[in-house]
Specification:
The protein is built from 2 helices and 9 strands; from the N terminus they run ααβββββββββ. The strands form 2 sheets. Strands 2, 4, 5, 6, 8 and 9 form a 6-stranded mixed β-sheet that branches. A 3-stranded antiparallel β-sheet has the order 1-3-7, with no helix packed on it.
Length: 179
């Protein structure tokens, strides 16, 4: 039976052998740049959509840094806060190595059967300028509905990409509870 020292030596030798193989070399910044360029190419072929859409318990602290709300039932007058992670949006080159990206957002409130009970065009514009083609971009949309009757509804945000002709929809059912 081999000793623990001989097992450690064998493991160390195997690691050295693996590290010397050409495919085991450390990646370089050039490798990273090539991989990112490939990712951007795929991103540009993906239709505009949303990786995540959810009601949140409080204001998100950053991309992926949120607490999903446990229920879609709200008290009258309670804010409805939506967190969304869009994918497939475009970047507009605006000069000086910078890009602009984001959304114009329209709001609709519907009944479950699709009847529109309220809404607003150009409810919000969410846009950024960056020197990078950011892919970690989040939307935080907050709505307070005063005077709406208790019942079941659908919150719909129609998003229009400001750097392309694409559009997407966030649709979340919710309930306003009896007071």
């Amino acid at each position: 039976m081999p000793t623990s020292i001989s097992l450690r030596r064998a493991a160390a030798a195997a690691l050295l052998l693996l590290a010397s193989l050409p495919w085991a070399k450390a990646a370089t910044l050039d490798d990273l740049a090539k991989a990112e360029a490939a990712l951007v190419a795929v991103w540009q072929d993906v239709p505009l959509g949303f990786r995540t859409t959810t009601f949140v318990a409080d204001a998100p602290q950053g991309y992926g840094v949120y607490t999903a709300r446990e229920t879609n039932v709200f008290a009258p007058g309670e804010p409805l806060v939506v967190y969304a992670e869009p994918v497939g949006y475009a970047w507009e080159e605006i000069g000086d190595g910078r890009f602009r990206f984001g959304f114009d957002v329209d709001l609709l409130i519907k009944t479950p059967d699709g009847t529109i009970v309220g809404g607003r065009e150009n409810f919000q514009r969410l846009a950024l300028e960056s020197r990078a083609r950011n892919r970690e971009f989040m939307l935080t949309l907050t709505l307070t509905l005063d005077g709406i009757r208790p019942g079941d509804y659908v919150l719909e945000y129609r998003t229009r990409d400001i750097a392309s002709d694409e559009a997407g929809t966030i649709s979340l059912p919710f309930t306003i509870a009896e007071p």
